[in-house]
Amino acid sequence: MQRAKESRRKMNEIAIVIETEINPTENPEKVKLAIENIFGAIEFEIHTRTQGSQLVARTKGTEGLTKLYNLLRRERIRDATRRILFRGLEDNAITFYLNKQVAYAGHVSFSEPTGESPLGPIKVKIACDSPRELIDWLAPRTT
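Structure (tokenized):
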């Protein structure tokens, strides 16, 4: 029982930072919608740059990952997700990239950091005390 409480406490100490470029040709509201389609209602900051803008969103806890959790099950991509999350694991953080256009359509498609997505990817960084446990929760093995 004590171990389960400790596990839940660690899972609630999750910090999620989502970043993406907003190109001059993109509608900022559509970029926000792409992120909300994957992570739910979330607060945004937009920083103006010389070429376009940078959108930064932050959320915490498993609540910030619930929509992604459900999408991974609906789209049946947990095993692929698991591999990608472990590949992005470094210390107490997991970093991965999502295709912005696919996210706008309400689906999950992982991307490389550069060159793969014409509008640029959505960068997601999840920091927590137990990233392996988080991966087991978010994308458990199906086989």
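DSSP finds six helices and seven strands in the chain. Residues 2-138 form a domain with the 50s Ribosomal Protein L5; Chain: A, fold (CATH 3.30.1440.10).
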